[in-house]
């Protein structure tokens, strides 16, 4: 017995020693790992030297078993920063739980993790682990829970995971994982919850259908294509949750879905499913949540929905439905959430919806609902917290019963046809935070009870017919942040209580009939957006209007304001847009303004401002448009304006400016589009450097004291649309190079100068020119016959020159009035001229012709010699540069993203374009240059090179988001959208590679008379259809929707079959990281929506306006100046036939029907009010269904008024 006792005691001592040794080993392993971390401040208790025992059992996050060994390590959200490379998993033989969730651990998951064989729970989610999942995890046969969510794990799911037959929860979502090997990945007998969301799966993994206990399956946000394999899903009898959202599933919802009888949650939104929603949905009587949003369905909501009495949430947003809401919806009595927005639902809200007494959130916005919002409905929806019925055709009054919705926090009824008074009972909604009633026909006054809404943060009453004054109670809304009362008939003075709105950050009172002065102490600290524009305010702008320094947008134009610029604006450094034009503001502005880093647009025009322009304007580096026209400013133009890299519009006209035009303004890097210095006292010559402004479209230097010749280099400004140099002291000959300005369209005015010599025949190249004024000069000789080619010319003035001989056979000359030809010795077939008598040219004229002949031989010969010299230099430089670049950037020879049937390396593109040599450049735009790359294989690509101001530096998460965006764009497929094939980066440039489209831009084809004749009416209408389809796809079928921002003739390309393709889609959104607020001018001049001059919001309706202009351009064969002028002057009697392109035969037959419809839609698209413009989905639908539409009048009798009334 004694021996047994001794042996037992010895064993216990030995076990204690071994346990202490094991515990010490675990402690040392933990310390070793802790010391490898970059940040471990949460592990201060992990310290061997400060404890009497080596056991880690009392350390933070450590749990030990009865034997003292570590069994759990729980360190979620502990701020750990480092890797697991020095974590010795073999040191923890009894570890059952490891939780390192929500830290900043990086690198790979070490293969040694397979040594922790007793693990039952492993959570490494929300870190940034990379590389593939180690196959050794498959050794953890006791594992029951595995969470690897939200990392950057790559490649295939290892088939060894299917060894984990005890696993009941597997979460590998939010990684970059691909489909596992279907042959080796076995079924998992115990799995009940499976998260595979946000990965790169291209099909439903087959092992899923071999998990008999599976109840929860999330495959959302992958790139799975094809039809839903419902025949396989029906084997999962226990399935209660199925999420396939945001994939690329297509086809019908299979009828077999009725067999998933245990389903409670069915999420199929954001796919490409089509057809009708099957009646079999009604068999899923246990369904609690149904999401079918953002698909391509049509037809009705199935009546079988009445069987879903347990349904709590129904999402049919943007699903393509086009019927009325069925009465059976009232049987879904458990519903708390409904979203049917963005469909084509018609008819009234069924009264059966009054049975939905549990409803809390109801959204049926952006449809075509009509009828009234019945009081019976409102009185039964007492639990509503959100009601969104905006953007419909609901009418009638807003009944007092709305006041019974005491839980309501959000009420959106804007853009309907409600009328009558806003009920006083609106003041009973004491929990209301957002109230939007804009764009209706409400009349009467603003109810004073509105002041009771102390929680209200947003109040929108814009674009109604409200009258009367603003009630003083408005000052009681202490929480209000956004208040928009613009575009009503409100009058009177502003109540003094408006100064009590301490939290206001947006206040729009524009376009009403307010009068009197703005309260002097007005200047809320948090104010960011303010508009007083279009009223009759008088007095001064409040001195503290930007007291808080937060003002971004300030509009007070078109009032009767006077006095100086408020002092507080000088330090208002966040300003982005300022509109103070058309007032009576005065005072010296020399030091009135400061430096504004974010300023994009400022208009001070049409005031009485004096002083000098400050050099500080040159420090406003984001300034895109500057106007101070029609004022009393003097002094020189500061050369610092030339330092503004984003300046596109500079209007200093109608002032008292003196001195020369600064050369700094004329840099080759300038992106100026409009330069107006007219009606000043500028002197000196027109600088030859003006030819550096390659993007300039509008140039007006008229009415100054400029002298000397017109510089030949002005001919380099080939983007010019309008040129005015009139009323100066210019002399010399008209340079032949002006013939290069082939884009000139509305005007070329060189009148009232001292120009001499003959009219140049090169003017005949200006085939788009509409008005030519060369009057009051000293031009001599005859009118060149080449001017007969001016097919667009409508007005000509050659009066008071020394011209002789016959006029040309061109309509503008033949119909010119007497005052346009007087002061010459002209003859010809004009009612005001004598017939020509056959006289010959003067001897001087013959000599001039002989001299020109000599020049025509000598100059080309000299040019050829010079060209050969430069060509030799260029070839040497080019090959040297390519060789050097090849050595320095070899690491950039591959694409970051490539999505094309044939593999191409980026180095192939660089070689094909000789490192993006200018000779391969086929176009330039506002964001960069486009190159044509012809590969040895015969493949042709268009490569857009975007220039960056500085090297792009992105965090890992930003780069992940950016590349996901690129990946999404390369996956876009539409016959009318240019396919993006790939993306790469090199130095400071980004490169987007597109398919090459053969015929080039629509703009160039319309400018070429011969090519334009090929564009028959059927082809042009097909082009318009294609554009409508493409924009409808970008706006309504892409998620998130894509606003193009720059629809113009230059961004519409035509392939061999004249099929249109929109290019440059999505690039603007990439460059601004999704922001929809303007910080620089966007779009092409003449195509941008007018509201962009007053608001900062880019919406789909901006694209709609641009589409309307392009459609009209196709009908007119040129930019529709004439038609737009008729609309502006309200000349609605203009006949449609008079504005159609005369270069092709008049339309006939059924073509007339579609043409008239397109013209009517185009006019609606360019409505000044964006809310009145149709959506592109509506336009596309109308054009596709035009056969149901008929006209009764012949084409010759249809006027603009008829089109507007259709």
From TrEMBL:
One of its GO terms (cellular component) is membrane. SUPFAM superfamilies: L domain-like, Protein kinase-like (PK-like), RNI-like. One of its GO terms (molecular function) is protein serine/threonine kinase activity. It catalyses: L-seryl-[protein] + ATP = O-phospho-L-seryl-[protein] + ADP + H(+); L-threonyl-[protein] + ATP = O-phospho-L-threonyl-[protein] + ADP + H(+). Its main location: membrane. Residues 916-1184 form the Protein kinase domain. Keywords: ATP-binding, Cell wall, Glycoprotein, Kinase, Leucine-rich repeat, Membrane, Nucleotide-binding, Phosphoprotein, Plant defense, Receptor, Repeat, Secreted, Serine/threonine-protein kinase, Signal, Transferase, Transmembrane, Transmembrane helix. One of its GO terms (biological process) is plant organ development. Pfam families: LRR_1 (PF00560), LRR_14 (PF23598), LRR_8 (PF13855), LRRNT_2 (PF08263), Pkinase (PF00069). InterPro entries: Kinase-like_dom_sf (IPR011009), Leu-rich_rpt (IPR001611), Leu-rich_rpt_typical-subtyp (IPR003591), LRR_dom_sf (IPR032675), LRR_N_plant-typ (IPR013210), LRR_R13L4/SHOC2-like (IPR055414), Prot_kinase_dom (IPR000719), Ser_Thr_Kinases_DiverseReg (IPR051420). It comes from the Eukaryota. The chain crosses the membrane at residues 853-876. It is a peripheral membrane protein; Single-pass type I membrane protein. Its EC number is 2.7.11.1. Residues 1-19 form the signal peptide. Belongs to the polygalacturonase-inhibiting protein family. This is non-specific serine/threonine protein kinase. It is found in: Membrane; Secreted, Cell wall.
């Amino acid at each position: 017995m004694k021996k047994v006792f001794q042996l037992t005691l010895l064993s216990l001592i030995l076990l204690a020693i071994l346990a202490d040794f094991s515990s010490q080993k675990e402690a040392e392993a933990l310390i070793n790992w802790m010391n490898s971390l970059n940040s471990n401040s949460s592990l201060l208790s992990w310290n061997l030297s400060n404890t009497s025992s080596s056991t880690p059992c009392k350390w933070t996050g450590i749990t030990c078993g009865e034997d003292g060994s570590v069994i759990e390590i729980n360190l979620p959200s502990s701020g750990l920063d480092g890797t697991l490379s020095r974590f010795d998993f073999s040191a923890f033989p009894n570890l059952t739980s490891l939780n390192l969730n929500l830290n900043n651990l990086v690198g790979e998951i070490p293969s040694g993790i397979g040594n922790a064989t007793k693990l039952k729970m492993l959570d490494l989610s929300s870190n940034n682990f990379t590389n593939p999942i180690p196959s050794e995890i498959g050794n953890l046969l006791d594992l029951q829970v595995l969470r690897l969510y939200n990392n950057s794990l790559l490649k295939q799911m290892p088939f060894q995971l299917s060894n984990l037959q005890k696993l009941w929860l597997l979460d590998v979502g939010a990684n970059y994982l691909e489909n596992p090997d279907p042959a080796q990945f076995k079924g998992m007998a115990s799995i009940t919850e499976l998260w595979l969301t946000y990965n790169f799966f291209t099909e439903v993994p087959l092992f899923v259908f071999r998990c008999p206990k599976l109840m929860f399956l999330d495959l959302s946000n992958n790139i799975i294509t094809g039809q839903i394999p419902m025949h396989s899903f029906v084997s999962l009898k226990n399935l209660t949750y199925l999420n396939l959202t945001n994939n690329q599933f297509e086809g019908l919802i299979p009828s077999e879905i009725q067999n998933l009888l245990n389903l409670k949650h069915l999420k199929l939104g954001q796919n490409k499913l089509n057809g009708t929603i099957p009646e079999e949905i009604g068999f899923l009587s246990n369904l609690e949540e149904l999401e079918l949003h953002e698909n391509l369905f049509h037809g009705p909501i199935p009546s079988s929905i009445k069987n879903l009495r347990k349904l709590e949430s129904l999402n049919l947003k943007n699903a393509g439905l086009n019927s009325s809401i069925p009465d059976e919806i009232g049987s879904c009595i458990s519903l708390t959430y409904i979203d049917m927005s963005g469909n084509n639902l018609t008819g009234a809200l069924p009264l059966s919806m009054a049975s939905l007494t549990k409803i809390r959130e109801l959204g049926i916005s952006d449809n075509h609902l009509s009828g009234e919002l019945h009081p019976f409905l409102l009185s039964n929806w007492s639990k509503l917290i959100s009601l969104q019925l905006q953007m419909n055709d609901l009418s009638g009054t807003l009944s007092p019963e709305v006041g019974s919705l005491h839980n309501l926090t959000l009420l959106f009824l804007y853009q309907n046809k409600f009328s009558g008074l806003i009920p006083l009972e609106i003041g009973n909604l004491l929990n209301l935070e957002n109230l939007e009633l804009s764009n209706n026909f409400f009349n009467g006054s603003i109810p004073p009870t509105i002041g009771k809404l102390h929680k209200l943060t947003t109040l929108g009453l814009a674009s109604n017919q409200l009258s009367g004054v603003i009630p003083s109670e408005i000052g009681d809304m202490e929480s209000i942040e956004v208040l928009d009362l613009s575009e009503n008939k409100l009058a009177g003075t502003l109540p003094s209580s408006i100064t009590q709105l301490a939290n206001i950050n947006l206040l729009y009172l524009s376009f009403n009939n307010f009068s009197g002065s703005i309260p002097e102490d007005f200047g809320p600290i948090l104010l960011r957006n303010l508009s007083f524009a279009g009223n009759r305010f008088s007095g001064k702008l409040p001195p503290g209007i930007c007291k808080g320094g937060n003002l971004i947008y300030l509009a007070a134009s078109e009032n009767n304001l006077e006095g100086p610029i408020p002092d507080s604006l000088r330090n208002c450094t966040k300003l982005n847009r300022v509109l103070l034009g058309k007032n009576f503001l005065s005072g010296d502005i020399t030091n009135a303004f400061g430096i504004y880093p974010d300023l994009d647009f400022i208009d001070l025009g049409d005031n009485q401002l004096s002083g000098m322009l400050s050099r500080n304007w040159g420090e406003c580096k984001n300034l895109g448009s500057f106007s101070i026209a029609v004022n009393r400013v003097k002094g020189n133009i500061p050369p610092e304006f030339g330092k503004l890299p984003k300046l596109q519009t500079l209007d200093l006209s109608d002032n008292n400016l003196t001195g020369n035009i600064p050369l700094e303004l004329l840099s080759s890097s300038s992106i100026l589009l409009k330069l107006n210095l007219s009606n000043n006292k500028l002197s000196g010559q027109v600088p030859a450097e003006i030819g550096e402004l390659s993007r300039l479209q509008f140039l007006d230097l008229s009415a100054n004291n400029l002298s000397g010749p017109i510089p030949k280099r002005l001919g380099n400004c080939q983007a010019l649309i309008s040129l005015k140099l009139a009323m100066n002291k210019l002399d010399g000959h008209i340079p032949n190079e002006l013939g290069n300005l082939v884009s000139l369209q509305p005007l070329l005015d060189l009148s009232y100068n001292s120009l001499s010599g003959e009219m140049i025949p090169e003017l005949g190249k200006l085939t788009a020119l509409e008005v030519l004024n060369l009057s009051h000069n000293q031009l001599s000789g005859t009118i060149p016959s080449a001017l007969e080619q001016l097919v667009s010319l409508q007005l000509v003035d050659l009066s008071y020159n020394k011209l002789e001989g016959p006029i040309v056979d061109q309509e503008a000359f033949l119909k010119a009035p007497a005052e346009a030809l007087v002061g010459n010795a002209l003859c010809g077939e004009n009612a005001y001229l004598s017939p020509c008598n056959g006289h010959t040219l003067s001897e001087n004229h013959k000599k001039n012709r002989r001299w020109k002949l000599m020049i025509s031989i000598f100059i080309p010969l000299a040019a050829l010699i010079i060209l050969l010299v430069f060509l030799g230099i260029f070839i040497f430089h080019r090959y040297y540069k390519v060789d050097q670049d090849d050595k320095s950037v070899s690491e950039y020879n591959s694409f970051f993203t490539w999505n094309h049937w044939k593999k191409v390396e980026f180095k192939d593109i660089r070689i094909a374009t000789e490192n993006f040599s200018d000779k391969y450049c086929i176009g330039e735009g506002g964001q960069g240059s486009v190159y044509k790359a012809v590969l040895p294989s015969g493949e042709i690509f268009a490569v857009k090179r975007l220039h960056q101001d500085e090297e792009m530096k992105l965090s890992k998460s930003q780069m992940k988001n950016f590349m996901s965006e690129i990946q999404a764009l390369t996956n876009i497929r539409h016959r009318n959208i240019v396919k993006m094939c790939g993306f790469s980066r090199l130095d400071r440039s980004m490169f987007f590679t597109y398919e090459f489209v053969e015929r080039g831009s629509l703009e160039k084809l319309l400018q070429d008379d011969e090519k334009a004749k090929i564009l028959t009416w059927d082809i042009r209408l097909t082009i318009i259809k294609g554009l409508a389809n493409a924009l409808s796809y970008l706006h309504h079928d892409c998620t998130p929707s894509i606003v193009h921002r720059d629809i113009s003739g230059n961004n519409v390309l035509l392939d061999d079959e004249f099929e249109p393709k929109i290019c440059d889609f999505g690039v603007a959104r990439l460059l601004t990281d999704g922001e929809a607020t303007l910080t620089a001018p966007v779009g092409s001049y003449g195509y941008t929506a007018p509201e962009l001059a007053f608001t900062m919001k880019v919406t789909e309706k901006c694209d709609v306006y641009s589409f309307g202009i392009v459609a009209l351009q196709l009908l007119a064969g040129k930019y529709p100046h004439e038609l737009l002028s008729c609309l502006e002057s309200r000349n609605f009697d203009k006949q449609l036939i008079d504005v159609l392109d005369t270069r092709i035969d008049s339309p006939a037959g059924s073509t007339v029907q579609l043409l008239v419809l397109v013209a009517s839609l185009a006019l609606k698209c360019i409505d000044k009010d964006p809310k009145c413009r149709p959506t592109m989905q509506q336009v596309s639908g109308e054009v596709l269904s035009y056969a149901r539409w008929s006209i009764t009048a012949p084409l010759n009798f249809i006027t603009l008024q008829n089109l507007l009334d259709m």
